[in-house]
Amino acid sequence: MWSGLVRASGRKKPPRGAGGGVDSGAADEADEADEAVEAVEAVEAVEAVEAVEAVEAVEAVEAVEAVEAVEAVEAAEAVEAGEAG
């Protein structure tokens, strides 16, 4: 699963057991800790993207509503001008 993946620091994760004297149990625990951190970071990244998309969606709706409000005012003014003229 890790082969080819690059950490945020830019370095590749060393192969298991490459720690030079680290027993496999400690290496497994370190791998699990790394995976947990990376899973949390991935969830946070997705949540950040979703938050930005939600803000953009709200801004788009507000922009449409603003245009519709301007058009409604202009239409009302045109009707009033037609009635006055």
Basic shape? rod-shaped
What is the element string, with H for helices and E for strands? Answer: H
- In whole angstroms, the N-to-C terminal distance is 76 Å
Count every helix, treating DSSP H or I runs of 4 or more residues as helices.
1
In which range does the helix fraction lie? over 70%
* pLDDT averaged over residues: 84
Region (Disordered): 1-37
Biased composition (Acidic residues): 26-37
Structure description:
This protein has 85 residues and is mainly alpha-helical. It has one helix at residues 24-84.
Which secondary structure elements does this structure contain, and how are they paired or packed?
Blueprint: H1 24-84
What are the defining features of this structure?
mainly alpha; 85 residues
Short description:
The protein has one helix at 24-84. With 85 residues, it is an all-alpha fold.
